[in-house]
Amino acid sequence: MYCRSLIVLCVVCMSVFVETAREEPGLARAARIIGGTTANEGEWPWLVNLRGKIVTRTTFFGLIPTAHKHLFCGGSVISDRWILTAAHCFDDRQVKKKTHIYSRNWEAKMASVNLRDGIVDRLRHLAGTIFNRRDWRTWEIDVERIVIHPGYSGRNGWSHDIALVKLKRSVPSGQDFSRIRRVKLPATNDTSFPAIGSTCKMKGWGCTSGGGSIAESARSVDLPIFSPRRCRNIFAATGMANRICAGYMYSGRGICAGDSGGPLTCQNDIGEWVQVGVASFASRDTPGRYPAVFTRVSSYLEWIKRVTGL
């Protein structure tokens, strides 16, 4: 036991040294949401990265997978077992079979702004498992169940674009663990918050530029609440009462693929961050030139409570 502890201690020391070197100026990656900034560890403890691995080709009588498609979406922690995200994350029409909705193909990663774990993360997770240090562990949990809103339609402008994901095991989302915390939700059917023109924040792993690849680190961008009337005219979108627009015109700031399902949060009168929206869609070809559309969370609180029992 003494030898094992000594080995683990050496591993931890080595990981700390590597981590320090990685954070030296000039070595860190400078990834940005379109016009935003890199998020810091622990800054948004409710942020979730949902990852799907879908088999697209098999061989030997369809038994052995030979090719996969990787899907990425954002989400938010709303309880120890439930994640809030977008329904269209599980509606990939390029996959012939509807395997993308199978929960076994998905996992949720929390308590990290990094899309993928490096050697330092894996070593720290090993040490955290042995020493029962949850603040060192990597929080990757398999998905048990995916619940898509019954009114969702990908063929009707992604109406009711909201979904719930149940984890196979609980995570410590209470106030005693700072790395994972549940986000505060708005009041039911409150359409007065946030006000048009107020500035909110969007977090996610979407591309750093229009047409770019998904980012390795989560980023945050300030987005002002946009007029729903103007937004409706831009996208020819219906059902704006259940949606929020946020962003700019021709500013080079916004969201894009990979940010889907991520939380739009605004500060209330007492300074609390409240999730008001779920990232639904933006302009496909020029996402930084137009505002983005979010599903309004307050319109679906009764459904959320009914499904989760919260």
Task: Characterise this structure.
- With 310 residues, this protein is α+β, with helices and mostly antiparallel strands.
- The protein has a domain of 101 residues: Beta Barrel (Thrombin, subunit H).
- It contains four helices and 13 strands.
- The chain has a six-stranded antiparallel barrel with strand order 8-9-10-13-12-11. Strands 2-3-4-7-6-5 form a six-stranded antiparallel β-barrel.
- Strand 3 and strand 4 form a beta hairpin.
- Helix 1 packs antiparallel against helix 2.
- It is globular, with a radius of gyration of 20 Å.
- The N terminus is likely disordered.
Secondary-structure blueprint of this entry?
Layout: H1 2-22, E1 37-38, E2 47-59, E3 64-77, E4 82-85, E5 106-110, H2 119-131, E6 139-148, E7 163-167, E8 199-204, E9 219-226, H3 228-235, E10 243-246, E11 263-267, E12 273-281, E13 292-296, H4 301-308
Antiparallel strand pairs: 1-9, 2-3, 2-5, 3-4, 4-7, 5-6, 6-7, 8-9, 8-11, 9-10, 10-13, 11-12, 12-13
